[in-house]
Design goal:
single chain, 137 residues, alpha+beta, three-stranded antiparallel sheet, 6 strands, 51% helix, 14% strand, elongated
């Protein structure tokens, strides 16, 4: 299972690959297939994530994704620490929070799976998993 950090790095590498040369959704899907399988994404979810990236633009004629402008791309959620977001959520909830509930309460700009949440909890020094619950240490 990919850790939160490894996933963010993989998403960032995906954008950097597009920066090197424009790619279609199929190209991106096939080149990083192991990542998408690991996090449980379907091709439509990858497409949604790519279309939400402010640093990318999709060419409607060739269906390729290109970098907008000339800036180095950065995954829009890569600077977010999922563990810190979960820490705030559990603190506000004031009791252990089910993972499934936490998944529904994430900010709308965060794309995550249950596995990603569990991984972020394991990596965070102030959070632990207790069965299906996220708990403060």
């Amino acid at each position: 299972m990919l850790t939160d950090l490894e996933l963010r790095q993989a998403l960032q590498q995906t954008l950097e690959g597009v920066a090197t040369h424009p790619q279609t959704l199929d190209d991106i899907w096939l080149k990083q297939n192991h990542i998408w399988q690991e996090i449980g994404w379907q091709k439509s979810q990858l497409s949604l994530w790519l279309n939400c990236q402010k640093s990318l633009v999709k060419n409607p004629d060739s269906e390729t994704f290109n970098i907008k402008g000339g800036a180095k791309p950065k995954a829009d959620n890569s600077s977010q620490n999922l563990g810190d977001i979960l820490l705030d959520m559990v603190g506000e909830f004031d009791r252990p929070m089910p993972v499934k509930l936490a998944l529904t309460k994430l900010p709308n700009y965060i794309v995550a799976t249950e596995g990603m949440l569990k991984s972020a909890v394991q990596e965070h020094p102030k959070l632990i998993m207790m069965g299906p619950l996220i708990k403060l240490t």
